[in-house]
Amino acid sequence: MAKGVNKVFLLGNVGKDPEIRTTAGGMTVASFSLATAERAKDQQGNWADKTEWHNLVCFQRTAEVVRDYVKKGSQIFVEGKIQTRSWDDKESGQKKYKTEILVNELSLLGGRGAEGGSGGGSYERSSASSGSYSGARASSAAPSAPANDYADQGITDEDIPF
User: Domain 8-37+50-140's class?
Assistant: First the structure.
């Protein structure tokens, strides 16, 4: 039987400040939500954004990076896998489910806002079998010429058909 593929790539904005906790064994865990948006025309022909919310979980070094650098509104790119957990609710006895993205790699996008400075960072899980994470800081290269956004020609986002 062939193996399956469980790989997720998301680019979006953090919905609220991450929740950071430490397990009894000393492992750092970060949980937060990420919003992704798609733009499509509605039945009346108007452009409408559809937002999808994702629950993300990071461990060890990646969680520490999230703790130190990620906050509500941060734009990030993540690579990970989907996992659904289930448990029995102690109050109602019903089976509950939660689908999460387990983050393997995280890239910080955009600047640091009012804090000054620019650049992004890329942090990924190491291939070591111990499950440890390594962080590697990467600087984002600034383009040598400004991007042509056609603003002087009167073209707006509404003119784009997708």
Answer: mainly beta
